[in-house]
Amino acid sequence: MNRQPVVAGRFYPDSPEQLRRELEMYMGTPVQDLDSKPDRLVMVPHAGYMFSGYPCGKTLAQSKLASRVFLLGPNHTGLGSPLSVWDKGSWEFPGGKLDVDEGLALKLIESGTGFTANEKAHSREHSLEVIVPFLHYLNPRVKIVPVCVSEASPTNLRKAGEAIAELMEDSPEPVSMVVSSDMSHFISADQAKKLDSMALEAIIRMDPSDLYSIVSSNQISMCGVLPMTMAMFAAKKLGATSGRLIDYSNSGKATGDYERVVAYAGVIIK
User: Fold this and answer.
1) Tens digit of pLDDT for each residue in 38-49?
2) Is 251 within 8 Å of 262 (Cβ atoms)?
3) For FRET with 234, which of 113, 137, 171, 260 sits at 20 to 30 Å CA-CA?
4) What is the pTM of this model?
């Protein structure tokens, strides 16, 4: 039941030693505030590390995640079910693994809000895999519940998000959410910043319905808008009122091409 890495050697190094060196470079020494409550929700990007490693690492280094994490991402492949949960075993990567919180995964599936056990959606999906080494670097003992999201109904996303919130509230141990999402794709850096600022403004003021509407009506190519909308509904039910933008960047910083970029953002919601 262990998930094997499928994009190691492409999106990130397949050498454990090189991967560790890159994680150290992108994250430095994370600052963990032991006196504060864990963050409810953190959004990070999921491109190849040379493109999105710094914004992802910078954001996670400033976060405080619980020892249990709902790891939520988009479905780029079209495989599987709308809310696909990997419910058993571990997620492996070069040099390590993270265990799945099987009990929490089962409760999510039994919530009756559309979550199903489905490995097919995860079989070739990169959006969660590339985040796993970062989470392991922060805390090798963290347990995850990976969910691949293609559910497009805002009503269903709200119900699913509120189910996650109830599980987080009822859990004897703290639980956080991490959403994997890039922002605008394959437009100029200036266009991307203009469009993405509208979506990020809705995220920062914690309005999931408006995020969904803004991204849809302006055709913003934010690939993780569905899991982020769902997670924001959860965070809102838990009492979150605002978020903080940690970093905004784009692929042009790595390639030198600012006419056709993919943009990346890191956000923390307490």
Assistant:
1) 999 999 999 999
2) yes
3) 137
4) 0.98
